[in-house]
Amino acid sequence: MILVCGEALIDMVPRNDGFYPAPGGSPYNTAIAAARLKTEVSCLGRFSRDFFGEILINHLEKNQVGTDLIVRSNENSTLAFVKLEKGREPGYIFYTEGTADRSLSKDDIPARLPEETRCIAFGSIALTMEPVASAIESLVCREKGRAMISFDPNIRPFMIRDRASYTRRYEQWLAASTIVKISNADIDFLYPGMELENALEKIISAGPRLVLVTLGRDGASALLRGEKGGIMRVIAPVVDLPVADTIGAGDTFHGAFLAWLEMHGKMSSAALSALTETELYNALYFSNKAASIVCSRRGAEPPTLKDIEDLP
Predict the structure, then answer these.
(1) Reported CATH class of domain 2-309
(2) CA–centroid distance for 99 within its chain
(3) How many CB atoms lie under 10 A from the CB of residue 108?
C-alpha cells in the first residue's frame, strides 16, 4: 500500500465568469492518480467537517482511496485560488490560516502504520506550515527504515517565509527519502544558477536512491544509484497531446511512477536499485503518458490504466 500525506484542499479553478471548486492539493492528487491505476492507496491527514471537507472525502472514497487514517475536525478546509495563463505554469493563492490540513499534529499520527504500508509519499506546501510540517517529518523519519519514502518538494516560493530554515529542513527530508520527484522550477529555487545535471547529482549524493525530474515538454529524466554505487541516467519523452492546462501534471507523474513500481513488484529499495535501464525507461514513459493525459484535460483529472494503455 502507498500512504500519502500532505495538504488536501479545494482548488478554486477559473471557469467562465467565476471559480469552480475542485478537490486538490499536490499529495491528494498523487493519491488519486495512483488509485486510478488500480493501486492500493490510503491518505493520512486532517480533513474538515465542512462541506468542502465532505467533497474531499467523497472524492477519495469514489476513487477507492482509503480514509481510515484521516482525522476529521471542525477547522475550515484550505482553499487555493488558481490563475491560468496560456503557456505558463498555474499560479496559486492559498488560504491556509487555521485550516484543517495544516493543523495535523504529531498527536494525529498513529503509533503504528498498517502492516501493508510499503511506501510513504509526502511533500509540497504542507512542509511550509506548522504543525503539519513537523508531524509529517516525524512520521517520515520514524518509518524510513521500514517503508520506501517518496518526496516531492513541489515548491511554492511565496509560501516559504524563511528560505534558510526551509533549505536546512529540506536536506533532512532528502536524507530520509528513497525517491525524490522534483521539477525544473523546484531546482531553480533550491539550486539557483546550478546546471541541471549538477543539481541532480547533488540531490542523489544526499541519500536518495532515485531522483526523478520532470522537464515539461522535454519529458522526464532519472538518476538511479545502483547496488554497486554506479549512477544510471535515463530520459523518456512525453506524448504529444493538446494541452488544456497543467494542473496536477507533476502530481499525476508522481502517482503513476509509484503505481508502476507497485504493479511490477519493485516497491523496495533493493528492487529499485536493481532496475534495468529498460525498466526505468518504461516506468518514466508510463508516468509521462499519465501526465500528458492529465494536461489534455481541465483540472487535475488523472487517467485510468486503460487510458494510458490506449496511448502508443
Answers:
(1) alpha beta
(2) 20
(3) 18
CB 59 within 8 A of CB 32: yes
Q: What are 229's strand-pairing partners? A: none
Q: Cis omega (within 30 of 0) on the bond before 157?
A: no
Q: Which residues, 6 or more positions from 15, have their beta carbon under 8 angstroms from its beta carbon?
A: none
- List the chain domain ranges: 2-309
H helices present in 144-226, as ranges: 163-176, 184-190, 196-205
pLDDT tens by residue, 111-143: 999 999 999 999 999 999 999 999 999 999 999
CA dihedral 73→301→31→279, nearest 10 degrees, is -170
> Which residues does residue 69 pair with via DSSP β-bridges, in sequence order?
44
CA atoms lying within 13 Å on the CB side of residue 272: 29
Angle, to 10 degrees, between the axis of helix 51-62 and the axis of helix 26-35? 30
Q: Please report where in the chains the cell 494503455 appears, as a residue.
A: 309
- Using CA atoms, how far residue 189 sits from 80, 125, 163, 213, 229, in Å, is 21, 14, 10, 14, 28
pLDDT tens digits along 196-255? 999 999 999 999 999 999 999 999 999 999 988 899 999 999 999 999 999 999 999 999
Dihedral of CA 44/123/75/32: which sign?
Answer: negative
The answer to whether residues 140 and 149 touch, using CB atoms and an 8 Å cutoff, is yes
DSSP characters for 11-36? EEEEETTEEEEEEE-HHHHHHHHHHT
User: C-alpha dihedral over 143, 127, 3, 225, to 10 degrees?
Assistant: -60
Contacts of 295 (CB under 8 A, 6+ apart): 241, 243, 244, 245, 246, 249
Whole-number Å distance between alpha carbons of 153 and 93: 18
The Cα 221–Cα 200 span in angstroms is 10
Cα-only R_g, the chain? 18
- Nine-digit cell at 156? 511554492
What does pTM read for this prediction? 0.96
In this structure, the number of other CB atoms found within 10 A of the CB of residue 191 comes to 17
